[in-house]
């Protein structure tokens, strides 16, 4: 017991859900032949590139990297990342180092962006299933998440028309994640352009978390950084200038396999950066310096590493698709994740994930972790039957083992199948 009171905002915020899944797995007796198989948290399945580790070692042992930095980060990394964005979204994407602020991870990039945009009592539109840290952040800040439901029959793609109907005078932003967490849905460039157009029309911000952008191996994620005359989509307003509306968030955790070093970025108008800077000054001062120095020297040489990692993950997605038992249905797949409907009639995915972890040693996350809390005894609906599998975590052999254990669950759990 403590004698002091906690803030209502933190009390109202849900607990981080991933530890719950690991707790289920505590009951599993792993053996050499039947190891625990973890497809829960989205973590890179391969180590970071050696050249990064060497550059980091040198940077970390230099007294010059021990001091504070400007809030928005190491200038050399800002320059390099502007260039990387122009290459990734090119050929004529227009981003400069003045548009970039380096943050201590993409979660912090989101906290900084949404704090800069919205006040307590304001509304921000958020698709469901949501990335739980987005919802938790907003709840903590007193910002109301307005839910834009997405549906399996639409491949979990959000609808700009339904979004338009949710906009009110209190709406400050719409936040999307593509490739999505948790559904894996990759939003087509034309859909992203339609949301940009909507945000432009209503003078609200369009925040796109592109943590998994490098796992799109065919084509560009979108064309928002270019002028509309060069847009392939033709969806953007004629006077489109990305800085007026768009905020891009990125994480170094997945593309460069360094989640523990906490590096992310916000790419936004230089007119917004001074306000963002005030938030950054309070919550991070600056992001960790040695990884920034190391990244600035190696990122341009890591394009093939990033590409090969993404191709390996795409291959694993294909393997997962091929090996998944027939009754388990993939609703969408991309980035790190596959969103899968389990085959047990009338059973909540929470229950299925719990037994998968406890009895069969497969850790996954149920859809219930990515949406509003539902009544304990509510009738199980289709939306309650989805499970997120992080295919990036494991190697090909483990993907096969997971699929084998899913097949076993059909007979072992004793539940009715569809
Ligand atoms: C959509 C999304 N945004 C942000 C993050 C967190 O990224 P970082 O490690 O850079 O904070 C994740 C991590 O899983 C994510 O899925």
Give the helix/strand layout.
Blueprint: H1 8-12, H2 18-25, E1 37-38, H3 50-60, H4 75-89, E2 100-103, H5 106-117, E3 123-128, H6 132-141, E4 144-149, H7 160-164, E5 171-177, H8 189-202, E6 205-209, E7 246-251, H9 252-255, E8 264-267, H10 273-283, H11 289-298, H12 303-323, E9 329-334, E10 337-341, H13 349-360, E11 362-363, E12 365-366, E13 386-390, H14 396-412
Parallel strand pairs: 1-11, 3-4, 3-5, 5-6, 6-7
Antiparallel strand pairs: 2-8, 7-8, 9-10, 10-13, 12-13
Kindly describe this structure.
This is PLP-dependent transferase. Its cofactor is pyridoxal 5'-phosphate. One of its GO terms (molecular function) is transaminase activity. The protein has 418 residues and is of the alpha/beta class. The protein has two domains: 149 residues, Aspartate Aminotransferase, domain 1 (Alpha-Beta Complex), CATH 3.90.1150; 253 residues, 3-Layer(aba) Sandwich (Aspartate Aminotransferase, domain 2), CATH 3.40.640. Helix content is 37%, strand content 14%. It has 14 helices and 13 strands. Strand 9 and strand 10 form a beta hairpin. It is globular. The site of pyridoxal-5'-phosphate has 13 residues, from helix 5.
